[in-house]
Structures are given as structure tokens and as C-alpha cells.
Amino acid sequence: MIDLRSDTVTKPNQKMRAAMAAAEVGDDVYGEDPTVNRLEERAAEVCGKQAALFVPTGTMGNTIAIKLHTKHGEEVICDARAHVMDWELAMMAWFSGCLARPVPTLNGILTWKQIEPALRPKGPHNAPTTLISLEDTHNMGGGTVYPQHDMDEICAEAHTRGLRVHVDGARVFNASVASGTPVARIVRDADTVMFCLSKALGAPVGSMLAGSAEAIADARLYRKRLGGGMRQAGVLAAAGLVGLEDSPARLAEDHRNARLLAEGLAELPGIAVDAALVQTNIVIFDITGLGITTAEFSKRLKARGVLANGINASHMRMVTHVDVTRADCERVVGVLSEISENVSRQKSRATNEHDYTRMQAGG
């Protein structure tokens, strides 16, 4: 199977497995796991922050960040299709007691001009805005990258108003490679940033939350409350260290493969995609013109050795990663072409039969 459902499906490579087997470990809840400590120090350095925390998942990292910057009964501004809003089981409400104030965007990228009208001051009739959450790259936006001037402006304007900014940087290394900007520069002015080890970086488990030393000290307590206090976690952190050091250098290959997929899709009848908008490793395309559901489309793909998921009734998503080669992507384009042509022939045949039946009835 060629698995394009997500970059979370990657398997640890041999270097990661060797590092896991040889990892020096201790009890991380006591702060005594040397491999976890090294990972946290390195993650903080890469992000340009004072400290970092190893957490089991990106959802936990985002959940903790929102809790750090808010109190119950406050509002968080985010894009209308943000991961923190649509894909994290309403943890913003469940754990932090906050309301999301979604702002619709074209491609997942918020600007200050869009954010400012949505700000709500503290008052007798409304909950105040205290946090802005940005997503870079934006998953449902198709892997779009924040222009640096927009992120800088949002952080600057937010801070002048006493607001905090969190970056859901699950795939921020993709953003870094695509823009040619170091991660530390991208998130320089953000209060916290979360990035995943288990997505673009190819590690089997884990994410990192980085911020000020004070914030991360508090985050460690919230991690424990959420059941994320792991013990000899160095066996997991070791793979994360390998991914953090080795994987960014090869992400451009994933981006090229995604563009190959998008360009191939753009040529197919019944499928709509703007290949020029594909910036990183995510391709989202519209199959409305085929006249079949995404569930049916996924079923037909699977029968031909390809795994991919729909994100709604009309749009599919494919994500390239380290375990998908260029040859795999070329094969996928062939499979997509076959499905598209088969559906088009079936529609044409049905139309001809319908026209013939009408003609006979009229005759």
C-alpha cells in the first residue's frame, strides 16, 4: 500500500530504532531522563525559546498551550478550519473552558486585518479575547505557509494589547523549508509553539511545546494532569532527536512529490486542484466533478493499493512523507487517472443511455 492518509503513518528508520535501543533513560517525571532532557534542550534551541517540553501528542501540546495563556470564560481567536477547533475533541472548551472565535479565511492564513474586528474586550456582556492561535503550516488550508510579515504583525499587535499568541506548528519544519526561514525566526515573537516529531520529522511518537522557562514549568504540571507524565521516555525521545536533527534536510523532497501529485491531478477530468497553491507536503483536491463521494473514491483507491482520506463529502487529502517515493507518487497519478477515466466513461454511458431512452419514449 502507498499510504497518503497522513505523515503520521511513517515507520521509524533504522537509525531511530538503533537510538531507541541504546537510549540512556531515567524517570522523566522526576526530570531524570537524560535523553528527554537533551531533546527538550535541543527543541528549545531550534525554536529560539528558553525551554521545551516533550509531550505524547500535538493535541496535548496545543491543549496545554491554550491553558497556559487563558482563564475559563475567555475567547481564543483561530482560523475557522484550525486543528485546535475541528480536530482536537473540543479540548479548548473541555480543558481550558474557553470559547473559540473562528475567523474564516481563504487558505487558513489569518491577517491582523481579519483578526482585529473579531477581538472582544472585557465587558459585562461578552467574554474577552486573550489568545490568538495560528497554524503553520495550515493543515486544512492545504499545507499553506504563513508569510513572515503577517505572523510578525499579528504578534506585535497582539502584544501591544496584552494578548498572547500560540503557534500550532505541527508541521513548522515544512514551513521553514518551504520559506527558507529558520524555525526560530518564524516563531520568534510567538509566546509558545508546538511542533510534532511524529509528522514531518518521521519519529514514531511525540511532540514538543516550547516557550518561556516559566510557561514550560507550568506546562509540565498540566502535562501531568492530562496523564502525559511518562517515565523512562528516553526510548521515545531518542527517535525524536534523530528526527529533529536529520529529517528537515529531506523535507523539500516531500514538497516536490506533493507538487508532482497536484500537477498530475490538475490534468484529470472531474478533479479540481490548483497545483500552484501547493507549497509543502499536503494536496487537497475537489472530486465534485466525478459525481462520487469521497468515501467511494477512497474505496476505489484502496482497491488499487493507495490509501487516502476525504476531509469532507467533496474534498480528498493526500500527504507526502518519508515513506513515499517519487515513483510511488507517479504510480498514484496513474491510479487516479484510471479512476477518473473510468468514472467519466460510466457517466458518459449513463448519459447516452438516458438520451436514448428519452428519444425512444418521444418516438
What report would you give on this structure?
The protein folds into two domains: 11-247, Type I PLP-dependent aspartate aminotransferase-like (Major domain) (Aspartate Aminotransferase, domain 2, 3-Layer(aba) Sandwich), CATH 3.40.640; 250-362, Aspartate Aminotransferase, domain 1. The protein has helices spanning 14-22, 34-47, 58-69, 83-86, 91-94, 112-115, 148-160, 172-179, 183-186, 213-225, 234-246, 251-265, 294-303, 326-362, and strands spanning 2-3, 51-55, 75-79, 99-103, 129-135, 164-168, 192-196, 207-211, 282-286, 306-307, 309-310, 315-319. The strands form three sheets. It has a seven-stranded mixed β-sheet with strand order 2-8-7-6-5-3-4, sandwiched between helices. A three-stranded antiparallel β-sheet has the order 9-12-11, with helices on one face. The protein is of the alpha/beta class and 363 residues long. The mean pLDDT is 95. 44% of the residues lie in helices and 15% in strands.
Jot down its keywords.
7-stranded mixed sheet, globular, 2 domains, about 375 residues, Aspartate Aminotransferase, domain 1, 14 helices, Aspartate Aminotransferase, domain 2, 3-stranded antiparallel sheet, alpha/beta, 12 strands
